[in-house]
Amino acid sequence: MQVLVLGAGQLARMMSLAGAPLGLKVKAYDVRSHTVVHPLTLENYQQDLAAGLIDCDVVTAEFEHIPQDILSQCQASGKFRPGAEAIRIGGDRRLEKQLLDSADVPNAKYQVVSTEADLHQAIASIGLPLVLKSALEGYDGKGQWRLKTTADAAQVWAEVSSFLQESSANQAIVAEAWIPFDREVSVIGARGKDGSVKVYPLTQNHHENGILSLSVALTDTEQLQQQATHAFEKLTKTLDYVGVLAIEFFDVDGKLLVNEIAPRVHNSGHWTQQGADVCQFENHLRAVCGLAIGNTQLVSAAAMVNVIGTDNIPNSIHQLDGVHLHWYDKDKRAGRKMGHINVCAEDKAELKKRLAALLKQLDEADFPGLHQAAQALL
Amino acid sequence: MQVLVLGAGQLARMMSLAGAPLGLKVKAYDVRSHTVVHPLTLENYQQDLAAGLIDCDVVTAEFEHIPQDILSQCQASGKFRPGAEAIRIGGDRRLEKQLLDSADVPNAKYQVVSTEADLHQAIASIGLPLVLKSALEGYDGKGQWRLKTTADAAQVWAEVSSFLQESSANQAIVAEAWIPFDREVSVIGARGKDGSVKVYPLTQNHHENGILSLSVALTDTEQLQQQATHAFEKLTKTLDYVGVLAIEFFDVDGKLLVNEIAPRVHNSGHWTQQGADVCQFENHLRAVCGLAIGNTQLVSAAAMVNVIGTDNIPNSIHQLDGVHLHWYDKDKRAGRKMGHINVCAEDKAELKKRLAALLKQLDEADFPGLHQAAQALL
Fold first, then answer.
1. Cβ-Cβ contacts under 8 Å, B321 against chain A
2. Is A207 annotated for ligand binding?
3. What family, per the record (chains A, B) (predicted)?
């Protein structure tokens, strides 16, 4: 089968690597250059989206910030999974919050604000602190403001309204209760065409400067896992979703509140490449291609370290058992996700040792906060 | 780094999939069409071998039956690993037997025969039964004759000499003692530029009609593993070998006799993709690119089923835990290796169950002898 992925980044690349053994071929539509390319070799197929859509059996997406005209064109092909609505919801904080409420999945109180008066109303009804988030194009902590006291409201609103003026007409701001969470966790799962669902074990995530830095697959979290699975089932059923979907949660004293969802494979699920029987990339392709969802159980203890804005990865890491580099082959740029490193081991104690051995080889300046995060998470 | 592989078949394809996460890019030189292509996408780079050699950092091979002029051209580039000599030895039974003797590695008694008189001399000095093997182009059991009694010598020689007349001038016949083996096993290992060696656990192999049908990774074979590792170290040191090399053995009552060697990744090591920390394809690339050899230890119990001459693989196999299809995306042809299926599990008992579950889904007619072999090997 031929799959067309909207977006030609590392997620499409890893889908192509995961799909090849099953005979699932992946092309990517680069939304910026409007070209169809191979996501691994970047071979240009000299096709536009219309030709790419005719050529493929299934179209899917590796990100959610996609112009509506492209989504509509894909939807019209009848081949789009999880489909335009799911992608649109994932890309618009207003729709996402509506979905969470309509599916009755616990999430932080919120209000859409358009004016400074709206903001004061939100302060009154939700309370402080608040987090203000842009509805569109929010990504890796961009487009977010925190409001702690009423005294700061005018200043924050000045920043927000200046941001709104520079944004598209459809942009908006969602004011949300700030959640005093114990930790951030996420669940990745896949739902098949037949409605069957398999979810991976929960992942605990550490963000540094708003970007995911470290993920560790959790075990012995039965009670949390049940909540996460329940939320996954409710949300995907509401959307009649097909494919992999990720849900990020705040863990507040053992209760999970959804922070956000991503209608796609997700950075916090990259450890599944080594840590699970079938990885998220293969399972997404299986789902959208109508194959059975593969086993999502752990085959080893697993963690993932993101490589952000550096290509300073010493060859010495290849000497370490259970350490697997995944390089995206992109030009270096500050803050850019350049690759990730999966670490696997028979059990958590050995995983901790192997992660420590890896961190010894990495330059601390390139991985700020990682040592402390590894101490905290393992 | 850019690697050029001689041969554009499934082994080059799987190298490209294994290398991509490390940022190791693989192109393939198709020895038949004299084109440089991408082994996964088959994109034609419009290069000849000379241009491909300039463009790459390392050249290696996925098979050993390569014309001498091509080997010489690669050798002259200074980038060829394991190099022309190792490939030539792997492709010529006479040289292979000489190597085994000079490295003092146990193997079956042999004699090169060119005439019927030579054959009778071989019968006298080695004894019967004998196996006659073509020195060149022997592959998957082709070019082999078995001689059981002196009475059959004239008939067998008639067949052999007719074969020789149709062959190239450099062709020859090696007469070898027939070995009454208990089982066939193989070892795959990698040797780095620095001479460091890591070998995978031994694999037990079942051949059907001369073609590998089933491989099972062995555990609890310390004594055999030592012999295999010893042979691997001696042979690769003698050749100053860099890369993955496979050795096939006869197990004769706990003593290993080398049957043949392959200077490349090998079909009996395909289970390492799921069963070992680092698979043979990645380790070959690591070795030839000068990176550290990765951990060759098992991460699960593992077996591999070859898919020969059929594309009748029901989707139902994807429902099975620990079952991983690797499809080569080739046109179907009788006797052709179309793909393989790896089966993994926590332990041998579970592996046996999972393999049985897989065999239930496969059409027996497409996998002759496999059910009995699975019974025997697990």
1. 277, 295, 297
2. yes
3. Belongs to the PurK/PurT family.
